[in-house]
## 1
Amino acid sequence: MSAIKQIRDYLAENCIDALVLYNSDPHESEYLAPRYCSIEWLSGFKGENAKMVITPSRSVLWTDPRYEIQVAQDLAGSDIEVLMERVPNAISIPDFLKSVEAKTIAIDSLTTSVAAALELQDVTENALICLPDFLDRFWKERPAMPCKDIFEADVRYMGESREERLSWLRGIMEKEGTDYILISELSEIAWLLNIRSSEIDYNPLAMAHLLVSLDDAYLYIRKIGKAHGEITTASTFAALEQAGVSIYDYDEVTSVLSTLLSSPGAKTMKFRIDPSTTNYEIYRLFLESLPENCIVQADSPITVRKACKNSVEIEAMKKAHFEDGIAMEKFLYWIDNNAGEGVTEYDAMQVLDEYRAEIEGYHSLSFGTISAYGPSAALPHYMTPAEGSLELQRCGLYLVDSGGQYDFGTTDITRTVPLGECSQEEMLDYTLVLKAHIRCAMAVLPAGSFGIQLDAISRDCLWRARKNFFHGLGHGVGMFLGVHECPPNVRSRFIDSPMLPGMIFSDEPGIYVQGSHGIRHENLLLCTQDETNDYGSFISFETLTLCHFDTRAIVPGILSSEETEWLNQYNATVYNSLKDSLPQEVADWLYDMTQPIEC
């Protein structure tokens, strides 16, 4: 019997109208440890953005247009219905629950955020049924919680000690009259305490909660069962304790919180939580013990502070992109010489991953490398299979989207390259996407502008050609943290978070033609303070990525003279920056590839 059928039977037997599941973990993470890949286990859908509603008679999955092709492939043959978010007239989960008249709604309260739970609560007059770790009863071989080595981030690249960062946070708390703040978002804990781990693939993070008061800090983290790195973990914990951070086991968070919240003085204190990253199971502890006026729901103050890199972090990120650029140019040289020789998408991916692994200070990839030839690249989040991947021919376009995690930074880059003769449509799309990329990189905006404005500047040339892409133009990138970081949010819907100097984000427009080709050009940009004059202050953007754009597929006459000048200068900068660090044959090849073109 399938797991979904078992769940439907359970719901019917217990008079539950609907179970709502989110592709998440107890920290509302985007990238998940295997234990929390529940929707993939239930449905087979491997996309990052997924939500499900299961009723006694139906199963419905929500995702967004990035995964339109993939979700159809992954769910082929199942009876799971698919609904899209972020499209006109989209049906939300609350709308759906109202339409089926769901009166009794259950959630896994460990993997549902406070914000999501309160949205569901508005649908029904009944209290939500909380079933923490609900899938344990059906998922007999469910993976255990991850437990890996905890180590200190190199403060030379962080620019601030953990003591300085804790002092800054306490200054915010004191100013606002907050006695305690609970932090559950993993990258915020890693940033604040300058610690890292590898408990989640591609993310140098540890599963943890952190409670900070004006005088103390309490870290709830996996303390036992570490197969490797006992000495490193112990020394890291000792350094944390020296900084006034008490260490508890991860599973103690509810018992310690319950004791604190039920203490005599708790009802006179203010406890701050972020409803978007705190799970509902923990929130219930606050509700059971405190009056509502003691619970302050607000965005975490760490979010924006972390996104605005300091000068030391910026220099470290530049070092990361220099080292990463060397690996990329060696790889693109290899591709140029080996396509058409029986090399597959998977073979190419392995070669690039090996080049990155040679870099001193390398920890891991920053996400699974996307190595996609021809029609494979029409899936923005293509997962390159080990078996059955396409061979790279001496024609058409090849797309590679990849990045690395290093002691000194995080990278994310996409290059689409011609492997030989391309069709006119491929070349036109290639040039239009490059034009869109350059328009973003060259943009100047009034200070306080939002990502939606930058998104529109970039897309304008695609819209004029009656083309578009259905993902955001860009996402924030952490400093030896998550490759996806918010803010900034550069996308075609308004998000109330301005672009600020020090933020690093991706510039990655694309065009995807099902069954034919996909194109994406991606660099990371640094938001910088520009001129201030009688008209106000302005921001502009510095490109951090160092890897040339292939000019062999450009259609003449589409790039303006200013855009062509930008491209020529960028390619020249790449060559001059990397040439002395590349093998001679690669440097010679790169010299030829970066010769200026006419507009």
## 2
Amino acid sequence: MKPEERTGMERMKEERAGAGPGGGPRMPGPGRRGAGMPVSKPQNAGKTIGRLLSYIGEDKWKMGIFIFCIVLYTVANLTGSYLLRPVINNLISGEGSRTTLFHSLLLMGCIYAVGIIAQYLQSRIIIAVSQNALRKLRDDLFCRLGKLPVRFYDTNNHGDIMSRFTNDVDAVGEMLNNTINQLISGAINIVGTFALMLYTNIWLTIITVVMAPLMIRAGRAVAGRSRKYYKQQQAALGTLNGYIEETVTGQKVVKVFCHEEIAEEEFSYLNDDLCKKQISAQFFGGIMGPVMGNLSQVSYSMTACIGGILCVLKGFDLGGLTIFVNYSRQFSRPINEISMQVNTIFSALAGAERVFDVMDKAPEEPDAAEAVSIVEKDGRLVFQVPAANRAYADHDGAEAKGAVTVEHITFGYVPEKTILKDVSLYAKPGQKIAFVGSTGAGKTTITNLINRFYDVEDGRILIDGIDIREIRRDDLRKNIAMVLQDTHLFTGTVRENIRYGRLDATDAEVEEAARMASAHSFIMRLEHGYNTMLEGDGANLSQGQRQLLNIARAAISKAPVLILDEATSSVDTRTEKHIEHGMDRLMASRTTLVIAHRLSTVRNANAIMVLENGEIIERGDHDDLLALKGRYYNLYTGASELD
């Protein structure tokens, strides 16, 4: 079967098996859901637990009160149980009076009441501590995402990233809310119960304790199997969420190409895969309770039988036997409860590892201490050069005019494939430079490098004579405005979306930017004008209106460098003229780099760069390139088309 004839499910099966189309190796790339990646056991469960506990450790005084409440509850529970011994013995011997019985029961009631209050307090405290820890965990994860390079987002599915915030953090929350409470209280309960068992009868204690290693060994055997499956479950859940996010976001495309059945088929495959992994994980997590419960019943039965024999032959008191079998249950119950939490623990550890995996990704390299800043002074943008940076000392206080120079750049996103090959160009302040060429020729890559979304391998890029690697990233990007083909509007008002380009802009500046972008007239026709709420990425606006807001957002930034990446390619010709009118105003005093498929939009550029296979094959203005009768001439006259 030819690769293009395969169904969606066959492709997905092939990918999950680790092969690419046609049986070749599967290469990583943007949007890869990681479906076929091998899943291993946690690399370091102890380290993961330690990192999780560090979030709880920030509320040390609350944890101290929490542990005190657990101890108080355990002591009250054990003491109340022990008071049954004299009550039962006195009733059997007939020595106890009604008054004594009443006082004993009243004392037991008071002790149990203290235990109930302590249990209530410990539950409230651990919920507050765990929710605070989750808040900090989400904060740290979100902050780390903001610091990760664009490469991370280009090579990871957005739905799978979202799964870290939902499924994985929720799994961690389940463990912090309930499991930690049971682990600590169970450990203290075991110690207290063991001490009272020894005090009551040492021989019965030995019988009970002998069963403990058997229970632990059985639990460890089941846990060893379930850990692997819970890791696989979390990965499969992230994959499924990623596919759902892709399909829902691209639902119009699915319907246009009638891919509903293929989408259902692919979803069914991923859903079945998740179901199989969940069955395996839940099975081994679920049998833990019955296994431990049955072993506990065996231990209880042996203790009761041998205790009865001791009562008959050795004079062991019946009250002592009664409380001992109760302690025997209490001794095994924490072990059972802890074993029942195995599925929660491993699900949380798998989720935590996925969260920490993102948090451990290397962020963008920090700016050097001597990096050059761009600040506003007396209404002008000027360079601020630290005294330690002698290489650019003469630029200190100079105005940032937006001259762009690209010198002998060679670059590839992956080492095996070079995208740009020895590219050089320059744009003087206020000039308009256009890039044309086939898809994949490297046009957008140049703009990615100018923004330092990626760093160049060979060569350098200069802004007003300063290497961009010597400029603070935030300052560099604040002074490069971008209008992309794909607009993205946030949930909020029209005014807030325009102000996104410069958060300290006044309302008057927002309206001025809208007028510059030719957006003011349509905004005023909206129901609430600038206060109209936009949701769903501006679904209540046309594509042209969304693009005009995008231009207004760029206009308000006051950046001296403007990048237009096919800003009009997704709109009709009439709307394009309207948008171009706004862009002409926007480009009036800025250095502009334009990427365009429609050659009519670049006729008035100061220089046009024709790229093919990562190289500039022609350069000049419109008339110069027509006179060459080369690639640009063929494109403009229709003799050839852009790929």
## 3
Amino acid sequence: MKFFEKYKNPISLGFTAVVTFLAISGSYQYYTQYVEGVSSDRLWSAVLFSAAKLYAFSPTVNAGAATPVFYEIAKWTAPLCTAYWLFRMLDALLRHRLEILTRIFRCQKQIMVFGHNRESEAFLYNLLQEDNTNRRRLMLVTENPPEQEQRLSLEKKHILVWHKNLLDDDNGNAEKKWMQKWLGRCDEIILFYEDATVNFILLRKLMEIPPQKPGDRKARLCSLRCEDKSMKRIITDYYDEYTGGKLFDLNLFSMPEIAAAALFREEPMYRNCLDQAAGQLNAGVLQADKILELLPNPHLLIAGFGRYGQAVMEEALLMGRISCHSQVKNYEMLRITIIDSNPDRCRDIINARYPRADKLCRIHYIACEIESTTVEQRLNQLPPVTYAAICFSNQSASIHALEKLCRYFRISRRLREEEYCFTGDVPVAVRMKINGSIIRYLTVQERNGGQPGYILRDFGTEKRILTHRNVTRFHLEEEARKFNAAYAALRQNPEGKTLPGSEELWSKLNFEKKESNRAQVRSLPYMSALLSLLPALPPQKELLSQGKDYQELARLLQENPLLESLAAQEHSRWCGFYYTYGYVGYWPGQSEKGKEHRICEDGRQYYGMVHYCLIDDWEQMKADPDARETILYDICSIYSYLNVARSENKILS
């Protein structure tokens, strides 16, 4: 079947050509051998007319008359060719309308994708292969009319293709009526243009269109592609401040962010560090408040600081320091080493996006081409790397970097055998565009050659990242809703029972707070693994029932140093999220939260948003009369991690 689909056109044309040859040959034999009295100057006219009548379901020779074998075969096969090509013509003319009627009468769930490019087409084909898409219908809206063959190819897979120039304001009400009609039939809308400004224009048009009827089914989710931080802020502010009634929830995605999130989900950044300290995390040997001091923070190596390298760095910053109490030499903070030939550009990008990056990590630059021998020399001057990500856009450069770094890991590990503090293998992830078969081949080769001390991973291929789960962030959204419900329940009652109306509570959160919950969900695997190694925490009911009074809470924390250490760790993670989101620091007064200010610190000036709880030092946090009231929220987060992990059987009771 696949063979016929692939070679359908050549097979059809070849079969028609053979039938035409049989029809003409059979007719010629009939008029030269079976019929007498045919005029020689009319012979070919009669032959061609007879052959043509075979295709018109009206053979010249009556049934039962003696005919050549070729003619008899053509008499049956020529009408089949006519029927086939007639069906192909009607299919090209009417398939679009038939698909529309089918969708109207079946009332099936639909996904509407705006923007036809390589990425959106890969996403649509991935959707077709997912099991749950049998219950959905796909619609592609293009700005420019696609080629006829391409449109037919998509519509044969039940992807309805519409050509609508929705970006032109001179189209009048026709396009608005079309959008109003189909918006009510869609469950999900995905704006897939590469330019985020185009997606924003479409979002505004969609937001301003009222439903066709009050009872129309509305879209549940609108996913918008945005790979620009400035546009992300503009879009989220517009959505949060929109007062005209929101028909759908907004979700922003970008391909580099999807790739980085998928990479750290499959190969966690903290695993090496946690495994190293797991053997020493024993409450019978160490005091509880000293356990987190043994946890080293990761040392992340990023080769190539393009869009994907920046996304990997941001994903690491969202995790931040896996231990804000770490006393492990050279690993007290998250350390990031960037290999790029233009470090000034990298430094400008980081300073513009993360003004307080110095509070999140220590950054080192290796300013040279990846082919240079300087790379190994500079790496040898740094502490051992715990995680490496190769993010060059050029695949040949990525493979060259992989070969060089793997050689460095093999040699340096042998040279530092005595002082090497990490026993686990170093994950080495390589970004591949379309196919990761090269990395998988090299993985097999390395495995056959023994234990090299590193693990090869490929990430970022379109087949793996452009899935419904990643683009709509559906699972991340559901997990964030679940975490927010557990967190809200703990804040309102110590027993942590799920409260009614949690869905409504989530919908009332602005985009920033939803992102904060999503960041906590990203930390959940690490916190689950960490909590499973630590001694049991005090019962939440006993602690939270008296915790609203700060003086009583301070006394309880003094009696439970491990819980206080974890609360400080969670506060550090929360600060890291806000620094990553563009905040610059502390400003007194709850009314100033989220407003722009100028902050002077260490002789430097920073411009950006401020928060009254953005205090890095835990002791200063406890001394501030406003900020210390939020310590209870950090404790609620710790117990929320614990409760959600137990509900998912990640931690044994």
## 4
Amino acid sequence: MNLIEIEEKKIKLCTALSEAEFSKTRYSSLLGEKGLLAICENASSGSQFSFSDWSFSSIQSDQTEDKVYFTGGLAQTDFTPLFKSQINIKTAELLLTALNQAEKQGLKVPASIGAALLCQKDDKITLLFLPQELFYNCASAFGGQDFISSYLMWENPLLDGRAAQSFTQAVLCYKALTGNFPYPNQNKDERTKDILDKKYLPLEYAVNGIDAKAAGIINRALTITKDSQNTLPKDFSTQILSAFDSAKNAAGQKTVSPEAFTKQKEEYLTSLNAKIERKRKIRRNSTKIIVAAAVFAGLLLLLSGAIKNHAEQPTTQGLSPTQVTECFFQSINEKDVQIMYAVAKGKAFKPYITAATNMHVANAASQAYTFSSINVAPEKWFFYQANEKPGREVSIYGISNLVIDGYKSLLDAKTNKNKDKPTPDTSATGQSIRQDISYYIVQTNGETGEIEVEYASGNVTLTWQKKCWLLTDIDVTVQPLNFSTQELKEDFNSSLKKNNGDVISAAVSLSLRYPWIPSRELLESEEAKLKEGIF
């Protein structure tokens, strides 16, 4: 099984999902997403490309492997996925030229080079950039080295739009000129830290004799920040292409001896690593203080819950298994650790309880110190975003679109209290049942500010213990969803205008593209709470 297979004039992109797993996603809605086909008929007379849309045409299942594929036809059988081949000067030049020409024609330029396929036959060159969102979902689900080399190494997760495209084009230049990726760490989180700290070797220290001006342009593209991404010149893609052209011509002209060049590189890296280590040490120490405060506050929270009057404590007695499961997941959104402890027992739930505890404390602390930072559940975020205020930071933490054995939860179940003396269902004594569940995990990355979403699916086990149902195990797998936070906000603001400021209709209209958006019913319920002053 390969991520990309080319056979019988068909391109097959593996989702890495079985039919059962695929049916629980909305990946089929991406079938019509457009990729970009670039063809140069006479390469020897100049690389002038013509462009057209291309998309996968069908979804097929391989019964032997029990895997679902997106498939599409093209009259070429010798395409090579670029992430499977060595990127050389000529290949990089072709890619940069095609992307530059596409941008000048106002076409949507792909952000990931890893999703490109190349066929060079006689004097004809064909490049195919696969649909980006669809490719990302498949590559991330496929995982392993294919995901790393086809996507992770090419992207800057902190950027979007033209800035993200410029970064990828600069990575292409760097890879072709040096044989290495500028940010080679294969751990996603560590690589993002390296990008934030600009922990890479600038081209002038990587290629002896490279043109300084050309190196400067490529280096600039590799160090774009979220704050500076809107300051890039409109012709930056052309500048990168020109810089690469200058760099490849001058790269072989050594200006200093190999020994002196190596010494310069080592001195630079020593200085850079020391500077970054100091910065990270300060960052770690700050984090330790916050974590210590969070742990202390969390212990106080748990202690206060433990000594509360027994009569006031929540209980699952009198609740159905589905209600118990609902209570657990809605307590994540409400960051109610007391309820989580009341409905779930066992090691499998400790990560959820720890995360909710820390989020509760961090949210309280940030509001206490800044008065402008707040963390909300997914169903609340759209109402805050619609009334965005300068200086206020609204982040997300929680789950959305919970489905329990086919039942679409509105996250409105209520636990009983011991003082209510609910009547238990004694017929269930000793039983244990399993429920299928699926939901989206939505949270804001604390370092990057990007909204990150994962689709979770699997099951929970409930066991009848002492007159009530309790959750005793959970087993889920998660798959990340790829989208741009900036585009989400722009899409939502645009939808707000189209829907005359109706937050619910504006949000729901985007649910096909962003499947984690809560249902209309849940948003309406949340709106009612906000109108009643329940924040």
